[in-house]
Amino acid sequence: SSHLQKKRRAATARRQHLKSAMLQLAVSEIEKETAAKEVEKQNYLAEHCPPLSLPGSMQELQELCKKLHAKIDSVDEERYDTEVKLQKTTKELEDLNQKLFDLRGKFKRPPLRRVRMSADAMLRALLGSKHKVNMDLRANLKQVKKEDTEKEKDLRDVGDWRKNIEEKSGMEGRKKMFEAGE
């Protein structure tokens, strides 16, 4: 059995090693992804938001403000369009999921019939022609000792359960139970 335990321990150790290797891989992938997103963000900002150089005259400042306002408006429109597209797509997804759910509901499983089968017939069905064991169910039954039947007799003689419940209910019953040490 020690050989089996060693084998089990080795399998467990291998599983643990694989788990930690997978976790390390996942962590490094997440870090790479985060770095790539940051680079993408910086590139986007460099392309769409050139560094701001403030002009000297009032006239040029007003022009710059007009340009910035126009830019803000166009970006806001883009954002709105993107949000609408997202909402539309989300709604389509929900509808498709509902359709899937409805379709699943339409295919009813056939009702399974109960089949009476002896233990021998079950084993024969499971094991095929290899089944030679004849199940003698009586041989496997536990022998009932005389004391067990005595206990059952005592339980039967306790009497009507309703009477017991009435006796134990209310404060009087609690007091009796407490005094009896139940």
From TrEMBL:
The keyword Glycoprotein does not apply. Residues 58-106 form a coiled coil. One of its GO terms (cellular component) is troponin complex. Pfam families: Troponin (PF00992). Keywords: Acetylation, Actin-binding, Coiled coil, Muscle protein. GO terms for biological process: cardiac muscle contraction; skeletal muscle contraction. GO terms for molecular function: actin binding. Binds to actin and tropomyosin. Belongs to the troponin I family. Troponin I is the inhibitory subunit of troponin, the thin filament regulatory complex which confers calcium-sensitivity to striated muscle actomyosin ATPase activity. This is Troponin I, fast skeletal muscle. It comes from Crypturellus soui. The gene is Tnni2.
